[in-house]
Structures are given as C-alpha cells and as structure tokens.
Design goal:
The structure is a single chain. The protein is an alpha+beta fold. It is about 50% helix and about 20% strand. The relative contact order is 0.17.
C-alpha cells in the first residue's frame, strides 16, 4: 500500500471582512475589502474629483499606513 503525504492544515484568518491566508496580507485585498475598489479605480476617482497627483499619492500613503498598522497589529506579512 502507498504511503500518502502528510497533509498540513492551512491557516486562514478573517480580519474586518478580509481573508488572510497563512499570515500574508495583500494591499489590494485590503483596498477591495475596506474601500470596495482597487487602486486603479480609486486613483481615477480622485483625479475625476480634482485631486492632483501629489494629493492622490498622499491619500495612498495614508491607506498604506493604515494597512501596515493592521499588519503589525495582527502579525501579518505585508505584500504591497
């Protein structure tokens, strides 16, 4: 009889509606969960609203800081 490989259980964690797989959190998943859109759509909406490139960049930096804080708080590895 063949001896099968031992299967390891994979770890999923749900934080504020965002599903994190094996402690790896992705910024795009964070945006889609928290804001409801990916960065391309967010950026286009900001430009349509009259934001400059620098203001859109500052907005993204703020979102990125919030994402990194969430990752530190829960011990996730961030992927941007």
């Amino acid at each position: 009889m063949k001896k099968g490989k031992k299967k390891t259980k994979r770890e999923f964690v749900e934080v504020d509606g965002m599903l994190v797989f094996e402690k790896r959190a992705f910024f795009n998943d964070y945006l889609e969960t928290q804001i409801g859109a990916n960065w391309f759509l967010i950026k286009r909406s900001l430009f349509d609203a009259g934001y400059t490139a620098q203001e859109a960049n500052d907005y993204r930096d703020g979102l990125l800081a919030d994402f990194r804080e969430m990752c530190r708080e829960h011990g996730f590895i961030e992927r941007v």
